[in-house]
Amino acid sequence: MEKGNSTHPVGAEAFNKDKKRVAWHDKALWFVREKRDKAAHQIPEWEQLRELAAQIKAHTLSQLDLYLEQFEKNALKNGIHIHWAKDAEEHNTIIADILENHQAKKVVKSKSMLTEECGLNPFLEQRNIEVIDTDLGERIVQLADEKPSHIVLPAIHKKKEEVGALFHQHLHTQKGASDPAYLTQEARKHLRTKFLNADAAITGVNFAVANTGGFVVCTNEGNVDMGANLAKVHIACMGIEKLVPSQEHLGVFLRLLARSATGQPITTYSSHFHRPKKGREIHIILVDNGRTNQLAKPDFKSSLNCIRCGACMNTCPVYRRSGGHSYNYSIPGPIGAILSPGKDLKKYSSLPFASTLCGSCTDVCPVKIDIHTQLYKWRQIIGKEGHLPKGKKTVMQLTGKVMGQSKTFSMMSAIGKKILGGPKVLAYNALNPWTEDRDLPSPNFTFKDWYKKNKNNE
Amino acid sequence: MKIGLFIPCYINQLYPQVGISTFQLLQQYGEVEYPISQTCCGQPMANSGCENDSIGAIKVFKKAFEKYDIVIGPSASCVLHLREHGVNIFPSAKEVIDKTYDLTEFLFDIIKIKHINATFPHKVALHKSCHGLRGMRLESCSERVKRAPDKQKKLLKLVDKIKLVSPSRADECCGFGGTFSVTEKDVSVQMGNDRLADYIHNGAEYITSGDMSCLMHLEGLIKRQKLNIKVIHMAEILASNKVMVPEEKEILETSNIH
Ligand code: SF4
Fold it and tell me: Would you say residue B196 has pLDDT above 50?
């Protein structure tokens, strides 16, 4: 799970030490955002699609219990094993048990943010099970012993030269080689042997369909198919919010997902799984791990609409300039900032403040989560629960008092101007960092002064 | 029409000229009064997670403005905050807030002005403030496939001799964000500098906006780095042909009120 207690500003400050890297990171993600814009603008009914997707999700979440049971029934009928996990520990234990039953020691795993959330890799590694991440980006961060910094582009923070050095060290590629085509080819060779020798394959789930008991996993690399088709056991891990009622709803989400994520019309592979082949097994783990808690909060339940496209990260001007690791949570960016406080309010209390509330995330989100409104609402809860930095709370209380009394406000303005040469009643002026990089104007009259003088002369 | 002039706290203190321009613009459409008891919309507290500490400010707002037919302020951000959150924070202010508008909304939607006596012979980039852009839908935004009416751009196009230039990134946030500008200083400053580089690169002499808070942040960076670009509130451009009465001039020149 997550290391350390670092707040977002601390992580952001560290990231911003290297200005060139910040500019490069910002540009790389902005490029993806622009591709997304082009793809979206080619679909005249884009806004209706988003609305439809949001309604399907809202409907499904409103009767999630029924749809989950329907899904379980149909999947069982198809010969799939179903497991229910209330939290990360149960999820990890169930997987360890399945692997033990099959004496599986070598596992290939495709991208799954849920297994990141649950800390599955370290859990299995402690039990002497080899887990190889087969998504190229995830393999890169795995070799670097890091966490993904983005949910769609896990290694977006790494430059190709860094990947070259990493591959040279671990996969013995040519020293100094950084050509992406060459490195990808070498990674393929390396992964191929892992696929061929795997005892079990773990995958995520993008969508599970209640009325068929089937599920869909989307990738661009085909690594899900390689893993799941070669290994004897396929374990698919899904959060309980991944359901859609019926097969026909998939079209709406598949059209939105890849366009929002990378600007592609559809992911290269949209793999549908319904039943195991003869002699093989498919297991699905349905995981709660805090989701029903979030579902019980009317202001925040729509955060469970998320289809993990990453568009809110690509568009977020703060994410692009602070990097995914600054969030210190398995899901970074705006969506991570509204999911994480539900997990641990105190620990993640800086994340809802890592935003200017510009609202771009809300407008870009294909399932219309009102992300910036939820950020604002988490801020209020953090304030009420007493998790604001102490200085901030005091300043706000004081500012509130001043602004709540016309007389005090006038007096403070006047005193502020006389003593400090500037208006110190404003909250942001009371805090010093403003002036490290920015000037403030200091006119020697206020609008009020001007108005009073002119009113009297009328 | 009795117009209550709402001048946000930081404009009153730091940018009196924006207040003066707004006042002059509004005078053409009704009897304008600036109730001197007004303080602030409460946004700095509320955005910091302290909505309760902002109740007083909204109470003052209600009391100061309830007697007017309409309330106008030169700030999409403050007006939007009252609309989206102020009503929940202090529900009995709803009636007043319902008749409170941003200057752009007033000129474009209510007065529906078609002509304006203003001249501004400069290259100007419109900085679409996020609250005006995505909160009030004053302009089209690049994420959405739906187009908005582009109210601010249309108002600026009424100005004689103005030349509007477009930045490469149509509507990225400036990085102000209230207390964000200090608690997340590094990212905030980087965002501002990136915006400035874009506007400068595209040849703008002035950056204008319906929100002075974005411009305050950008100007802070411009002045510190002595960059060759200026900021100006839309109200100042729209009122550019207003002649000041002598008393106003006197104050502006001597500025010896205290
Ligand atoms: S919150 Fe919306 S934009 Fe962000 S990852 Fe989820 S679906 Fe995509």
Answer: yes
pLDDT classification of A4: cutoffs 50, 70, 90: low
Asked if the model's pLDDT at residue A457 lies above 60, the reply is: no
| Chain B residues inside the 8 Å CB shell of A434 | 181-182, 185, 220
* Model pLDDT for residues B9-34, shown as the tens digit of each residue: 999 999 999 999 999 999 999 999 99
Q: Give a yes or no: residue A350 inside a domain.
A: yes
Query: How high is the pLDDT of residue B254?
Result: 43
What CA–CA distance (Å, rounded) separates A51 from A130?
Answer: 43
B30 with B16, same domain? Answer: yes
Number of domains in chain A: 3
Q: Is residue A294 part of a domain?
A: no
Cα Rg for chain A, rounded, in angstroms? 25
pLDDT value at B247 more than 70 = no
Interface test with A, best of B184, B196, B224, B244 (most A CBs within 10 A): B184
Give pLDDT tens digits for B134-149. Answer: 999 999 999 999 888 9
The domain of A415 spans 410-454
Q: Is B253 a residue whose pLDDT tops 60?
A: no
Full residue range of the structural domain in which residue B187 is found = 123-238
- Angle subtended by helix axes A447-457 and B246-254, to nearest 10: 150
Is A301 contained in some domain?
A: no
CB of residue A366 inside a 6 A radius of ligand 1? yes
- Residue in the block written with tokens 């300039």: A321
Is B30 inside any structural domain? yes
ipTM exceeds 0.90: yes
- The span from the CA of A29 to the CA of A313, in Å, is 8
Pick the closest to residue A241 from A365, A95, A58 (CA basis).
A58
State whether A56 and A150 are in the same domain: yes
Question: What pLDDT shows up at residue B221?
Answer: 97
Residue A415 has a pLDDT of 57
| 3-class secondary-structure state, position A374 | helix
CB A369 near ligand 1, within 6 Å: yes
Residues 216-255, chain B: which have Cβ within 8 Å of A? 216-217, 219-221, 223-224, 245, 247-248, 251-252, 255
**Does A302 map to a domain?**
no
Residue B30 makes CB contacts below 8 A (sequence gap 6+) with B1, B2, B3, B69, B70
